[in-house]
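PROTOCOL LOG
Step 1. Enter all chains and additional molecules of the complex.
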Amino acid sequence: MSTLDWIIFIVAAVVFVITGLSILYNMIKGHHKTRLTDKFVWGLNIQIFYALSSFGTGLMVVMSAIILIVGNEFPFKILQAGNSIALACILAGVIQMGIDLGKPARAIKVLLGGKFNSPLTIDFIALTVLMILSIIFIVGMGAASLAAMKVWAYLTILISVLCMSTHTLLVASRFESGFRSNSFFSAETLVCSIWSGMAIMILLSSGNPLTGVFVQLLLVLSAAGLITGFSSVIVSKLGKSEIHTHKKVFILLSAITFIILVIGDLAGIKQGGLVVLACLLTLAAVIVEKASSVIVIQQRPVIPAPFSNLDPKERYVPSMTEIGYLLFSIAMIAVIPYGVFLIGFGA
Amino acid sequence: MKFGMLIDLRKCVGCFACTIACKAEKGTPTGINYNKVKKYEVGTYPSVKLKHIPMPCMHCDNPSCMEVCPTGATQKHETGVVTVDANECIGCKACMIACPYESRQFLWEIKPYYEGQERTPFEVYKQKDFQEGTVVKCNGCLERIQEGLEPSCVQTCITGARIFGDLDDPNSEISRLIASSGAVPFQPELGTEPSVYYIF
Ligand code: SF4
Ligand code: SF4
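Step 2. Run joint prediction.
Step 3. Record the structure below.
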């Protein structure tokens, strides 16, 4: 590892330990350090859970697609690094969700409850299976046959997409029917996952001959993000509901990403600063989209009842504790892939 | 027996006696209120009226809160009331997102009512089954209805705006009143099949 890599790893490890200890402290002391209320029952931590699981599941779908398309031709090292990042994202996301529980020590009851029609149970199982699949890849697929890799890819695609769909199901009740609904919400969730996964893959595979193809696919996915976001604004306009700032920012970021990629494509640019910028903008757009699908939907009255106008208007601003939890997850995303690299699994 | 409640909004005067009775019966911790009475305005200035609508848990027949609960902490009792088992609840709040009637609350902290003092013996006794970090809601005064009593809010209502009874029995007072008055649940199109009916 280079000196810069070591610095990143050591800083991340220190942040990881400090924030991890503070999480333990808060879990013992109770939950009243957050700014969540009965109106805003899910906040920054669930937003980040959504974003990180979107990154992780999207990346796993992209890697599975690569295996199905080019088989053993693609460098195993990149897929291994991709799996360690997907694992880190999913694990960090699950921890964000776990921290948000009122009784985190009872999380195992999700499995013991046997409620397999609960979106949370499906999500919990799917994310656990995805983590197992990524560990299997990191540790044991170095010398695997193409057939074994393909089986891994089929399973991974199915479970990742299942996971993405539960993230629509979990908040589906907050979307009303008819023109008051957002009929593009599930499409946005799906697009955002695969789009962010593609962006991470491009950042990982810089210099690979296939990166140019990935950049073109990113262009297609940014168009899908832009148009589904735009369509949901049209739905809101038709239903005369408010078009919130997060949605506008999402559309703006998608549009800028699309334009950058079109310019790059016309100029024949397949890597470098412009491509990295487009990838980072993609990740930012997805994080903003998760704010709108988790937090902004809670700003509106749950049902358009006559008394809703007189209900006090509340705002949600995350507390330092919630931001600390977020830092823990960010640090974890650096620590796990570097750890895998240092240990040298499958090398 | 199937739990049912009828609320005649023509009789409700917005006195909040049901809210207070519920708090006294359940001893709910600070910030927790199972029996909300919502206010709204009708008409155009200067000809406006303030109206009230009690919004308890609807003890739905198809409770979305129960469907999403991953642990089975939310259950439908044989009497039709929807309950939460604090020992099974993990505090995921999925049920709060799913309930369209905002009938559930998260218990962040059990604090004494009177600042700077310990909890009173009444609070300690009444709050022994509450657990911080879990979701709480009205249980339809299950203990009372199993003894043949009415829920506290019904017994207290000063105008008789609330009627409690068995929806399974077509001859019960509530079933006859629902049939004769054309009472309907609040926003039945939400599909949760509430057991609380309103005369608007
Ligand atoms: S009103 Fe809400 S909490 Fe009560 S049973 Fe219906 S869905 Fe559940
Ligand atoms: S908060 Fe408790 S009652 Fe509600 S869904 Fe989660 S486990 Fe079930």
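Step 4. Note key features.
The mean pLDDT of chain B is 94.
The pocket of iron/sulfur cluster (ligand 2) is lined by residues B 68-71, 73-74, 84, 89-95, 135 (CB under 6 Å).
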